[in-house]
Amino acid sequence: MPVIWSYSDPADRGFGLFKRRIFNTLREMGWDARLALAPLLDPASKKTLRDDLLKTRPGWILLINQSAGQLYEYLQLDVESWLRSTNKIVWYLDDPRFFVDRPFEPVEFAFSFDETYLDFLQSHHPGGVGFMPLASDVDRVGVMKNHFCCDVCFVGGVIDQSARRAQLSPEMRDYVDRLVERKLVERGRTFDELAILEPYAPGKCIQIQPQVANYLYWEANNRYRIRVMESLSDYDLRIYGNEDWPVLLKDSPLLKKFHGRIDPVTELPDLFASARVNINIHSIQCLGSLNQRDFNAPLAGGFLLSDWVPAAPRYFEPGVEAIYWSDVDDLRAKIDFYLEHVLECRRVIARGRARCERDHHYAARVDGMLSVLRSFPAARRAL
């Protein structure tokens, strides 16, 4: 079977976890899957990874949010012909418009977690394009822990952008605020489209560069998540996430609701099982797919209320296997209802878990990815 290579930081609880799940699945399918581990913040790690790749000379390379050209630059590789002819799977777990800055190689096969972005990927001429959504990656049902018990809980990240914002002129700050607020109303539109509808000045449209779009994206996510949480501040609410939360909440009554980081492997399943209602707030880039919480919460035994996204019925039967909310008034009404109807929560959890166990695990995702690859002649010959 083919040799496939990738790399990860052993402490990485994000993309590193996804790679480990995929590589474990590939090994079970008979692949020789080699995941090189190194602390990525250590400058010496680049040589370690470079040497490992050159020694392994794999037939396939798996990358996340990173093209082959970006890998070569990151590892400071002298690109030999064998490496350029090595097949690559590039899986985008975020909007690829933030990352794709050049044409793909003919042996790069680009996958997106969200079907919305497939046309964009195709426009950069990879060897093929495919859809590979996220899946459940918790490996156990959570256990109720007293120190995690609460009525309502949210786990997720925000990004402090104060340093980037300080570099903008007052006029530009006002403009990006207008774009962000419009994005929160018209989530299906790109920032490029919004810049045309909302010009900087009459007759003056600004081209949105990837780094600007990234700023706007995180600013919209920050505001969306904080506003939803502020609407729930009168509940027995807990927020878990990264260290940027206290910075953004310094003037908010929500600050006392923040409880720090939580480990996604050792603690998150127990938190899902201990909170009576878990809130899911999708990133604004989720249009044709779901996020990790949609799959992990029910598998861990947690009851989840997710904000509605158009792709939801593709994965769960709404109202039966998963419950969705449309706005903060609807969210509050559903929190109140399900806090009073514990048995119905348990029924939804059981149905959602059964659906995840049947359809939304990494074995199914990898099998789907390989089926797509087999549809491309160049990839099929290498499988």
Description:
There is one protein chain. With 383 residues, the chain is an alpha/beta fold. It has 2 domains: 3-133 and 362-380, Rossmann fold (3-Layer(aba) Sandwich), CATH 3.40.50; 146-159 and 225-359, Glycogen Phosphorylase B (Rossmann fold), CATH 3.40.50. It contains 17 helices and 11 strands. It has a 6-stranded parallel sheet, sandwiched between helices. Strand 1, helix 1 (15-28) and strand 2 (32-37) form a beta-alpha-beta unit. Helix 7 crosses helix 9 and helix 12 (292-299) crosses helix 15 (342-359). The longest helix has 21 residues, at 210-230. The chain starts with a strand and ends with a helix.
